[in-house]
Every structure is written in structure tokens, then in C-alpha cells.
UniProtKB/TrEMBL annotation:
Top-level taxon in the UniProt lineage: Eukaryota
Keyword tags: Glycoprotein, Glycosyltransferase, Golgi apparatus, Membrane, Signal-anchor, Transferase, Transmembrane, Transmembrane helix
Spans through the membrane: 12-29
Any one Pfam family match given in the protein's UniProt record, by short name: Galactosyl_T
Source organism per UniProt: Patella caerulea
Annotated Gene Ontology cellular component terms: Golgi membrane
E.C. no: 2.4.1.-
Protein name, as recorded: Hexosyltransferase
Record GO terms (molecular function): hexosyltransferase activity
Length: 343
């Protein structure tokens, strides 16, 4: 009888201990990923009254999960068809388009759990991927998209030389399926984006709001690389000039959807075609379409110093590029601490 009582007591203690650990982990996860109260933006409004209060966002709401259905995007000869699609979101005012690779599952998860976490209906994050050469990641992408509903896979083989084709195909999908979206920010899956700062800029920058502009880190008189061993090289017969036209660094750049639509109309007419996505889209196409650049110090060049938490909190940086998953997670955690304690 005594032994039975001891067993019952031990069982109760074990259950209580497990319950306590569960509650602790639940609370820790909630505090780690969710920004603190008293966010950065106070009643920021985007053009037609979209209201974004604080740094607390709620994830885009979708009604159920649709099966992936083939669709053809034949807007231009450079754009490859896309036949793996995402669940359509409610129309966001700002859509952040992240260039990724099918195998970069962890990169995408890191973004979803950090700066892309808990976004409102006014802000959406979507990933553009191509097809890996061996087709090994196809089923992984399918399952990931069913779970997160935030992927566009275009029918372009993943290769740095195909980067421009991949992104133009993805941006064409954005134009067709997100026609009511007001702003598009293109970035990469190794970048940290300061979403509240982006919202402030598209609200307050008059030049950006009233004209056909692209905003980012402006590159002027960039020398063309000729060494064929370099992935950034361009053959002389393709582009004979010694320098590229002014363009914005590809780590992050921002434009109105109307500007993007205007750009893409010149895809079949602007020459030369370059595999360097940022040079072609924000340089060659922009020049052909008569679109101007806005140089913004908050955007990063590929070799810029990585942003600190205080850079983000104090509105000194919009983007930080070439970051590892670990660096992004650490920065995200530090930002929350500095929002409370200050820099």
C-alpha cells in the first residue's frame, strides 16, 4: 500500500514537472520571436489609409490551402513559365520578394522566424525559387509551400547565369497576381530587412511617391569584369562598354508596382541581356524605361558592414546583406532587447 502511494506521488510530481517545462518553453518561444510592446512605428499610414501600428504584425491570413496548380507566365521571352505556385495572399500594400534557392530551406525558415515573422495584411513576404539541376528538391519545395504558402517556383534551372531570367519570371507573377500591391521590395535570402523603416520611407519620401523611381544603394561607374572565371564577368561582345549604367545593388531595392510594370514592358526590347540581375533590371531596363534612381544610405552594398541592432532601431539601415542564419537570428534577438533598453 505504501509503495503504491509512493508511485502515485512520483507520477504526480513527474507530470507536474513536465507541465512546468512545457509552459516555460512556450513562454520563452513567445518572448523570443515576438517583438516587445511599444513598437517603433506609431500610426504610420501608407497612401490610402493603410494603418500600421507598432512593430507588432500578424501573419497574412489565408483561407485554407489550395493544391498547387500549373500556371503559365508567358509575358516575355526572358520570363520562364512557372508551374508551382503559392496560395494567393490578401492584397498587401508592401510585398517583399526574396530571391532564394530550392535547397535554402533553412534560410527561408530563418526569415519566417525573424524579420518576416508575424506580418500584417499590409506586408507580405514571398520567396522566388527556380528548379535545381537534378530535380532533387522538387518534392521539398512542394511540401514547404503547402505548409507556408509563400513560394513561387519558376521553370528556370538554378544557375547564377540564369538569375535575371529567374527574377523577371518571378516579378511577372507578382505583377499578374498582386496587381493591387502598391510597393515591391526585392531582396535575397541572406539579408535582414528593417520592415518598419521601409514602411516609413514609402510613406514619407515624396520623390518616391510621386514619380517613377527605384530606391536602393546606387552604384555608379562600376567597372565591367572580363575574366571568364569570375561569375560576375560579362563578355566584350555582349557588353562592349567599360562601365555599367548606374544601377542599384541587388541585395535590396524598392519600387512602386507601377514602376515595376513599366520596367517589365521593356524586357523584350532593352539590350543587352545580362545575367547580372541588379545591373539588368535596375540599370539596363531602368535606363530604357526612363526610370530614375533614388540613392538611400540605409540600403547595403554587397560589401557593406553588417548592420548592428542600434543601426536597425535608430533607423540607420534598411537592409543588411551577406548574413548567415545565425547572424540574422542574433541581430533579431538584440533588436528586441534594444527596443526596451535603448542604444
Amino acid at each position: 500500500m505504501v509503495k503504491c502511494r509512493r508511485k502515485v506521488c512520483l507520477s504526480v510530481v513527474k507530470i507536474g514537472f513536465i507541465f512546468y517545462i512545457f509552459v516555460f518553453l512556450l513562454q520563452f518561444t513567445k518572448n523570443y520571436y515576438r517583438p516587445p510592446n511599444g513598437g517603433v512605428i506609431d500610426d504610420v499610414r501608407i497612401n490610402d489609409g493603410v494603418n500600421v501600428r507598432g512593430y507588432h504584425y500578424s501573419r497574412l491570413q489565408t483561407s485554407g490551402i489550395n493544391k498547387l496548380k500549373p500556371e503559365i507566365n508567358s509575358r516575355s521571352t526572358i520570363s520562364a513559365p512557372s508551374d508551382v505556385h503559392f496560395k494567393k495572399f490578401l492584397a498587401p500594400a508592401l510585398l517583399i520578394v526574396v530571391c532564394s534557392h530550392p535547397s535554402h530551406v533553412q534560410h527561408r525558415l530563418t526569415i519566417r522566424n525573424t524579420w518576416g515573422y508575424n506580418l500584417s495584411e499590409e506586408v507580405g513576404v514571398i520567396f522566388v525559387v527556380g528548379r535545381d539541376k537534378k530535380g532533387a528538391w522538387g518534392s521539398v519545395v512542394d511540401r514547404e509551400n503547402v505548409l507556408h504558402q509563400d513560394l513561387i517556383q519558376v521553370n528556370t534551372v538554378e544557375d547564377y547565369r540564369n538569375l535575371t531570367r529567374k527574377m523577371i519570371a518571378g516579378l511577372n507573377v507578382i505583377i499578374n497576381d498582386f496587381s493591387s500591391t502598391q510597393y515591391v521590395l526585392k531582396t535575397d535570402d541572406d539579408a535582414f530587412i528593417n520592415v518598419p523603416y521601409v514602411l516609413e520611407e514609402i510613406t514619407n519620401n515624396r520623390d518616391f511617391l510621386t514619380g517613377s523611381h527605384i530606391m536602393g544603394a546606387l552604384c555608379i561607374n562600376a567597372t565591367v569584369i572580363r575574366d571568364p572565371r569570375d561569375v560576375w564577368s560579362v563578355p566584350l561582345k555582349t557588353f562592349p562598354n567599360k562601365t555599367f549604367p548606374p544601377y542599384l545593388a541587388g541585395g535590396a531595392y524598392l519600387f512602386r508596382t507601377a514602376t515595376l510594370t513599366k520596367l517589365l514592358k521593356f524586357v523584350d526590347h532593352a539590350s543587352p541581356y545580362l545575367h547580372l540581375e541588379d545591373v539588368y533590371i535596375t540599370g539596363v531596363l531602368a535606363q530604357a524605361a526612363g526610370i530614375k534612381h533614388i540613392s538611400h544610405p540605409g540600403f547595403s552594398f554587397w560589401n557593406s558592414k553588417k548592420a548592428s541592432a542600434c543601426d536597425i532601431v535608430n533607423r540607420r539601415r534598411i537592409s543588411s546583406v551577406n548574413m548567415s542564419d545565425k547572424q540574422i537570428k542574433i541581430l533579431y534577438k538584440q533588436i528586441h532587447k534594444f527596443y526596451v533598453k535603448g542604444c
